[in-house]
Amino acid sequence: MNTCGIVFMTAASRDEAEAIARALVERRLAACVQIITEIQSLYWWEGNICNDREILLLAKTTDRLFPKLVEAVKTLHSYQ
């Protein structure tokens, strides 16, 4: 039996978020991706604390599909 879960990720822009969401749903790697606009993120990056506006994505998927979802996001995403 597959376990279902939610994958949280952020994107730099609304356009990028929509492109990632559409690709994940079209490839059937996520049943649904919700896009939550404009969150504020504070995080460490390259030795500095960053404070940026981002777009939050919530992808509903299964444990069986999770590895493929991760690989797809790596190819679609602008972040390193």
3D structure, described in words:
With 80 residues, this protein is of the alpha+beta class. It is built from two helices and three strands; from the N terminus they run E-H-E-E-H. It has helices at 14-26, 66-76, and strands at residues 4-11, 32-45, 48-62. The protein has a three-stranded antiparallel sheet with strand order 1-3-2, covered by helices on one side. The longest helix has 13 residues, at 14-26. The relative contact order is 0.32. The model has no long low-confidence stretch (mean pLDDT 95).
Short synopsis of the structure:
The protein is 30% helix and 46% strand. The protein has 80 residues and is α+β, with helices and mostly antiparallel strands.
Q: Overall pLDDT, averaged?
A: 95
Helix content percent band = 25-40%
The main sheet orders its strands as 1-3-2
Global Rg: 13 Å
Q: Which stretches of 5+ consecutive residues score pLDDT under 50?
A: none
Given the helix and strand composition, which structural class is it? alpha+beta
Biggest sheet features: 3 strands, antiparallel
Strand content: over 45%
| Total beta-strand segments | 3
What is the distance, rounded to the nearest whole angstrom, between the alpha carbons of the first and last residues?
33 Å
Instruction: Give, in order, the helices and strands.
Output: EHEEH
User: What is the approximate shape?
Assistant: globular
Work out the helix count. Answer: 2
